[in-house]
Each structure stands twice: as C-alpha cells, then as structure tokens.
Amino acid sequence: MIRAALRDLLKKKREKREQERGVRQQDLRQQGLNKGGTKGAAVSVGRASMNQQPSMNKSAGQPSSSTSISRTTGRAGPPAASAQKCSFAEPPNAKNVKQMLLDWCRAKTEPYEGVDIQNFSSSWKDGIAFCALVHRFFPDAFEYSTLNPYKPKDNFQLAFSTAERLAGCPPLLDAEDLVRMKEPDWKCVYTYIQEFYRCLVEKGLVKTKKRP
Q1: Under 8 Å CB-to-CB from 43, ≥6 apart: which residues?
Q2: Model pTM?
C-alpha cells in the first residue's frame, strides 16, 4: 500500500514538472515570435521610408521636387526671385495688341516737338513722351513748351501725377526707378500705357470698340 502510494505521488510530481516545462517552453516560443514580429515591423518601416525618398532626376542627378534644399542646413530655401520686375503672360495676339497701342501712341504724340515713339523703352526714357501723351488729352494741365528733356525725373513725376489726378490712372511706374535705368523696361512702360488707355476709355475720352 505504501509503495503504491509513493509510486502515485512520484508519478503526479513527474507529470506536474512536465506540464510546467511545457508551459515554460510555450512562453519562450511566444516571446520569440513577438521579438521577431517587432523586428519585421522595423524592417518594413525602414523599407517604406527608403521608398519615400525624393525621386532623382536621371539627367541632372537632383531631386525632382521644385523646392530648393540647402546643402548645409537641409532646410527648404526661399523660391528664386523673378528676374523681371514687370513680367507678365502675353495673350496669343499680344504682338498685334502691342503694335496697335504703339501706333496709337505715335499718332497722338506726332504733333509734339521732341517726341519720336519707336518702341516702349528708349523712346520714353526722358519722360517727354509721357508728358506729350498726357498733355494731348489734358492740354490745360501744364505748359508743354516749358519741359526740359534733361530733367527726366521732373517729367516723369509731372506726367504720372497728372494722369492720376485727371484720368484716374494709378502710378504704376516710379520716377526714381526710371531715372536709375539706362532705359525703361518695355514691359513696365507697355503695362502703364495700357492702363492709361483703359482709364481714358472709361472716361469717354477715347472711343473704341475693341480695347487693345
């Protein structure tokens, strides 16, 4: 009886140890799986981040992104400044419109001495052409014969202030900037003359069916 009881007791202890060993092995396997999963996730994240690097321009070897990147700081640099102060997008018939407006200016200033408009740049550099064009529509505003071509700043200021006061034309050009230039930027002059023409049309001083 005692021996049988001892055998049963030993058998139960052996079974308990094996059961505990099995549970321990199962826990170790589970921990191994968890570590492997974390490592796999890290690898996946690493691969994803590599796939998200900026695409390179094959011809130039530079990132295709339009934002400039500083090599020293790694920060996005400011966009490049436009080289043209008065740049604008020309419509398809811009050449025809430009020529029509140039011809209009030439016709309106033809009677004025010292004015010979051939373009929208050098022909306006002394300010006399601006004054002649404004004087043609507002002859009582100032005495044209007293103007001095060697004082371009005074001529610019007189023309722009008169056009603003009597025609409502905003002073898009600055006399100080114009006198510092060798000759005016034709896009700036062209834009100003367009605006002056529009103001004259609104006031009924120019009759036209088609705005240049």
Answers
A1: none
A2: 0.57
